[in-house]
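Re-running Sigma D regulator to confirm reproducibility after the cluster update. Everything else is unchanged from the original entry.
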Amino acid sequence: MLEKCRNAKERWGGVSRIIDHWLEQRQALISTFIKLPDQTVGEPLNNYVSLFCSQLIDYLSSGHFEVYEQLLREGDEFHDGSVEKGQKLLYLIQRSTDMALDFNDQNNGFNEPTLGELREFLNSLSTLGEALEERFEIEDQMIEVLHTSHKEQAAEA
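Result of re-run:
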């Protein structure tokens, strides 16, 4: 997952400060996600869960309230059907948004868990990880459809 993030940043980095910052947020989120299962139960785990949830909400917010809007606006300028494709992709992204928000609500403030709660946490973390990986792929498609495909046309204008 981290390698795919690096590839996306190399591919689209420098295109837009907003996208660059967002991809940096994605990389930080993935790094924290990867380290979560290795944390010791107690304060280290609590701190990492709080950090992860904070990064997760920041990433979701940046996507929905900055990046997607910018991409849709850019695609709209070309009147080539890319906005419709982007909106379909945005619809697919919503599933992982809902899962991530639920994860945050259920796990932020994680404190002295029982063994059963730890097992449930790890299962929900795994499910969220799969959803995020799918989300990142869809977001990359969205960047491709709404931004990269118009890059040459925009440079000519």
